[in-house]
Automatic annotation (TrEMBL):
Pfam families: Phage_int_SAM_1, Phage_integrase
Gene3D superfamilies: 1.10.150.130, Intergrase catalytic core (1.10.443.10)
PROSITE patterns: CB (PS51900), TYR_RECOMBINASE (PS51898)
Name under which the protein is recorded: Tyrosine recombinase XerC
Gene Ontology process terms (BP): DNA integration; DNA recombination
This protein's record includes keyword tRNA processing: no
Assigned keywords, A-Z: DNA integration, DNA recombination, DNA-binding
SUPFAM superfamilies in the record: DNA breaking-rejoining enzymes
Length: 291
């Protein structure tokens, strides 16, 4: 029988061994730490003593503390993942979290930047070579902010006008190779040639002046500042991913192709963008034009 604290520690260690991103480790770590704290206050210290009622009580407590349904749904996912780990490791016989239900979450329409908005964002950052490259990579490839922060220089092929970016396989996602169009290649090459510190042991593409990897929170705060400078309201970093998907679909790019490039687990995730755009059906392109 394993204690909750040790199970929590082993769970996070397994995620780290699987190559999950730092932001993912932090999110899972905090979610399960919160669950463990709640259970221990109830006198539950062994994973074998946890019942479905205890988990449902925890989720109800979060709702009473004004957590949003979206936040509770994320913590439900974290709990289910934790219990799958416990079952696979042989720490529990029955997985009570299988019966834990998600709260109803209202699905909001994605924030899709107009051409004027993303061009204004690009113009606002034009003199900031590193941020300009970050914007181009996000906008022209549709990668997530975590994937962007994890890019290594060795993942890139930018020797020619059209390049590529390799996103390595994670435990929850298949790896994929994303074409880099001319705009992305030019921005990355300019950053590598003119701005990125020449530090041999820094593997990451986007780094600080001292060679340390840019953290997700640093990228997010920088982007928020440039959204404000550009006059782009109510926009977040992930909205560039929405913009990438929506604009390419509206230009007639093949839906399955975009789904694979974006790394969507289900084609239905990509299909839902169709209701928010005017789709061009004339051609089914399998290449990424410049946004």
């Amino acid at each position: 029988m394993i204690k909750l604290d040790l199970a929590h520690k082993n769970f996070i260690q397994q995620l780290e061994d699987q190559g999950r991103s730092k932001s993912t480790l932090i999110a899972y770590g905090k979610d399960i730490e919160q669950l463990v704290d709640h259970l221990q206050k109830k006198g539950i210290n062994l994973v074998t003593n946890i019942e479905l009622d205890h988990l449902e009580e925890f989720m109800k407590k979060l709702a009473n503390e004004n957590y949003t349904p979206k936040s509770i749904s994320r913590k439900t996912n974290s709990t289910k993942t934790f219990f799958r780990f416990l079952k696979e490791a042989g720490h529990i016989v029955d997985n009570v979290a299988d019966f834990l239900k998600h709260p109803k979450v209202e699905i909001k329409a994605p924030r899709i930047l107009t051409k004027l908005e993303y061009r204004a964002l690009r113009d606002a950052a034009r003199d900031d070579v590193r941020t300009f490259a970050i914007i181009e990579v996000l906008l022209q490839t549709g990668v997530t902010i975590s994937e962007l922060a994890d890019i290594n220089v060795s993942d890139l092929q930018v020797e020619k006008e059209i390049g590529s970016l390799a996103i390595p396989k994670k435990s929850s996602k298949d790896g994929r190779t994303i074409p880099l169009n001319k705009a992305a290649v030019e921005a990355v090459k300019k950053y590598l040639d003119q701005e990125r510190p020449k530090i041999d042991d820094s593997r990451h593409l986007f780094i600080t002046k001292t060679g340390k990897p840019l953290l997700v929170r640093n990228i997010r705060s920088t982007m928020e500042r440039y959204f404000k400078l550009a006059g782009v309201e109510k926009a977040k970093v992930n909205d560039l991913r929405h913009t990438f998907v929506a604009h390419h679909l509206s230009q007639g790019t093949n839906l399955l192709f975009i789904s694979k490039i974006a790394g969507h687990k289900r084609i239905s995730t990509t299909e839902r963008y169709l209701q928010y755009i005017e789709r061009v059906e004339i051609e089914e392109k399998t290449e990424l034009g410049v946004l």
